[in-house]
Structures are given as structure tokens and as C-alpha cells.
Design brief:
By secondary structure, the protein is mainly alpha-helical. It is built from nine helices and two strands. The chain is globular and about 55 Å long.
């Protein structure tokens, strides 16, 4: 059997291996992380970034918590991701999560059609730590501004582009991911400010 070489194919194969027809209605975050095996952080960022491209209430906060833990490890220079037991055991609705992935993987496939290894300096160890910092900011925004789609889609797209850049060793895509992260941060901060200002206006 041929090993898939494209990121979208890897994720599709991983989802298929999770047996959607299983009798269990949920899949744990730990199960998904284990299925990534040695594909490490790049695929993890994509896996938890994609659900934020759709308006699913509750998912931005959950994925944000996972991404905070991953971001700290990327900045620390770890080679493979690790999650605390409590987060690893957190259940996700199998049907809903798989439906989200199936709807968003075609978008990922369209982006990866333009990828190739290039600008190695932007995908190397130093750049990875900068990616970790960007992911941390995006993850915190997902937690504190959990507005599905409007509030989470920019962060989700930036996370996917950064993750794809790391996975494909495409420095140009990593740079594009930083630009999207800056845009997403501005949007998230703007939404947060509007919400806080509106609440204060009502109270006072």
C-alpha cells in the first residue's frame, strides 16, 4: 500500500483509520493525536485549525486550549507533541468532527497544490519557534473571542497555512501564514474590543 505524500491525503487516511462506523459516538483528542504518529506539529496545527473554518459553537474554545499546549511545546523546541491526560481524554462528537474535516479537506487540498519545499530558512528551527509564538496568540484569541466563523475563521485559516508550511517545508507558505496570523490577530482584537466596549456601554 502506497503511503500518502500529500498533507490532505495523510489527514484523510488518518480519519479513515479512526473507523467512523464504530459503535462509539465519540473520538478523543488523544486518539487523533496518536493517529498522527511521527508527523508532529505541522499536521497537529492543521487538524485543530480546520474545524475553526466552519461555524461550530464550542469548538473554538476546545481547539484553542489544545493549541495553547502545542504552541508552548513548539516554542520549547520539542520534536513531537504531547498533551496532558485531561485534554487527551476530552471527547469529540465523532460524527460532527468527521463531517467538519470532510468539508474542509478539499480547501486544504487546493492550498497544498501550490506548495513545495523552498525558502528553508523560513521553515527551519528558529522559524518554528516564531510559528509557536504566532500559534499561541491565535489560540488565545480562539479561547477569549469564541465567535464561530466570524471570530474563528481567520485564526483557523492562519493555523492551517502555518501547519501546511511546516509539514511541506515551504518557507513561503510559513511567511504567508505569519501575514494571515497578523490579520487574524487584528480581526480578533477588533471583535474583542467591540464586545467589551458594548458590554461596558450597557453597564455604565
Amino acid at each position: 500500500m502506497t503511503t500518502p505524500d500529500k498533507t490532505s491525503q495523510m489527514l484523510a487516511a488518518m480519519m479513515a483509520a479512526q473507523a467512523p462506523g464504530s459503535q462509539t459516538a465519540t473520538v478523543s483528542i488523544g486518539d487523533l493525536m496518536a493517529a498522527l504518529r511521527n508527523r508532529a506539529f505541522g499536521l497537529s496545527l492543521i487538524l485543530f485549525g480546520l474545524p475553526n473554518l466552519l461555524p461550530i459553537p464550542g469548538l473554538p474554545i476546545l481547539t484553542g486550549i489544545v493549541l495553547v499546549v502545542l504552541a508552548v511545546q513548539i516554542m520549547a523546541g520539542r520534536d513531537s507533541p504531547w498533551l496532558p491526560d485531561r485534554i487527551s481524554r476530552a471527547p469529540l462528537s465523532r460524527e460532527r468532527f468527521f463531517a467538519v474535516m470532510n468539508r474542509t479537506l478539499p480547501l486544504l487540498a487546493r492550498i497544498e497544490a501550490w506548495t513545495r519545499p523552498r525558502l528553508g530558512f523560513a521553515a527551519g528551527p528558529a522559524a518554528r519557534r516564531a510559528v509557536g509564538f504566532a500559534v499561541l496568540i491565535l489560540a488565545v484569541l480562539l479561547i477569549i473571542v469564541p465567535v464561530p466563523w466570524i471570530g474563528s475563521m481567520p485564526q483557523g485559516l492562519a493555523l492551517c497555512v502555518l501547519g501546511l508550511g511546516l509539514t511541506e517545508r515551504d518557507g513561503l507558505l510559513v511567511i504567508a501564514g505569519f501575514a494571515l496570523a497578523a490579520l487574524a490577530t487584528s480581526i480578533g482584537a477588533g471583535i474583542g474590543y467591540t464586545v467589551v466596549a458594548g458590554a461596558l456601554a450597557i453597564l455604565f
